[in-house]
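Next comes a concrete protein, fold included:
___
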Amino acid sequence: MDLRHLNYFLVLAEELHFGRAAERLNISQPPLTRMIQQIESDLGVVLFERNKRSVKLTPAGTELWKDAKQMVLQMQTLKKRLATHGQGLTGSIRVGYVGAVMHSDLPTQLAGFSQDNPDVQLHFEEYPNQNLLYELNNGTLDAAFVRTWLPTENLQEDLLWSEPFVAVLPAHHPLADRASLRVEELEQEKFITFTRECGPTIFDSFVALCAKAGFSPQILHHASQLNSVLRLVESGFGVSLLPQRIQNGYNLKVAYVPLEDATESIPLLMLTRKENPNPTLHKLKLHLK
């Protein structure tokens, strides 16, 4: 007995009249009669008492009526859930990221997506770049957000946005009050920057900026964490060139000064597997673009 059989039974149980039930089902009365007889034969019980004047449910029919209503309701609910899942309205996305992407508009964008899609669960994991590639390729993650160009032979790479560099200076630095400055004005400064291993694109772009300004930077210290870079700058050990939005979320005694000639920029990239069928992932991509 399938759902179509149950539906025929339920309509007749509600109408208790073969003619009206057949009309509701948009069929003629004989096929409905044969269908009810088949259900009774399959179950081995009589479901309806029939005579020329009335149709009534038997005790067995009443029991089936109670269960059948619940079964049909559950199946309708399941169909709705599956339909919303297919449209990307429900489900989950396993998101990986490097710490540097949190100093951007990405957290706000992801929060907006969650508010617009309350039935989609986002699960977060922080990893270094190479670990993100591994977890993506083996299917542990659905998406990864990075700030550097990586080898992505089997992955889809979407550029969400790029940020210009700013100069990060101690609050008491002579150039801290400037509205903007040129990279060449920092030639004599000692620099604090990320290690290339942690942020290859940021490091290479920083070196390229200095080279275009005509000098090779004096790097005092390589740090693996953004907080370390900023605290060393705050303490007066040197200056740095970093993506513009890193100032979000920090309240330190440092100045962020725009650069007039910063031709380099830092990307924020979303990486996904090319064959990932997760419909909620496509919805997230559309939200971020």
Summary: Residues 98 and 127 are 6 Å apart (CA to CA). The chain has two domains: 3-86, 96-289.
